[in-house]
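User: Predict the structure for this protein chain, please.
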Amino acid sequence: MASLLAPSPLAGSDIYERVLTAPGGLVVLEHEDTAVLIEQFRAIARNNGQSVYVWQHESGMANLREAHHARIPGSQRLGNALRYVQQSIHFGVYLFERFPLPMSAMDSTLLRQLARAPAGHVRRVVLLDAAPALTASLDDVAVRLSSTSQVAQRPRLRDGRWLL
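Assistant: Here is the predicted structure, written as structure tokens:
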């Protein structure tokens, strides 16, 4: 006999939901293990069909939904990757891992513009492993989230399942 219960949510879906419901377009995510978090977001992207990208200094930006991590051409430089995010008209969560410092004035301006994106446009830039100097300089526009602390939240219905 088939169970009538909804399947259990994927690991990391609570963090993903908190990123999506964050009040700003720029999120600084404090967490313990970047590789595990990226794998969790990859599973969510493949399962739900959501657009989740990861940017790494060495390889540029890649779509986590694609099986072979489809790379975005010309996105190795930080400025080009930020412009790609800014010009995208689609929903997306963009993970930036090991943000390089020092950051140019143009990159800082682009990041601040992305943080103040229009409310109707769901596009989140998430900084992973951000240096304390960077997070301190973005405190006025960034939303800080932690993957370890569980803040009391109202249950939400998402894809037919109740999530906290």
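Residues 91 and 122 are 5 Å apart (CA to CA).
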